[in-house]
Amino acid sequence: MDRTEIQNKIQQAKELVGGTAEDPFTQIAFGEVFRLLIQESFIPAAGEMKPEIKAVALPSQVSEFLAQTNIRTHVDRVVAILYYYRRRGEESMTITEFEEAYSSIRVKPPRNFSDLLAQCIRKGYVVEAENKKDGKKAWQITDTIGERYVREELAP
What we know:
By secondary structure, the chain is mainly α. Helix content is about 55%, strand content about 5%. Strands 1-2 form a two-stranded antiparallel ribbon.
């Protein structure tokens, strides 16, 4: 990809995102949109696709998604749940929503979600969301460490 193509992708991302450059949410959105636009440029033609590379659609149920991952601990599960819901359009989750997710997957929840989330934060997988959700604290997966952990370490 040459310099002109990159500049075009930057301009396209700016137009798609809008907002002001000083706004942290605009910066996050720009980064994600730009990343997707760049990746789009490197998608091989159908005949060039390597057999080991495959696109996997996101299952409709969180339990099905979790069944496809190598979850060993509650930390793994919480990060994978956040990853799944982010892909479904939810940027953050509250403890109540984590409890509901655990109930839906029929797994006994941890005794103390606050301690578990603190572990996730220390590892860099999760951050506390800037804005409360329904008046409650919320957490979100980190764009770099958390998402990479799910894609690379928890992948089947």
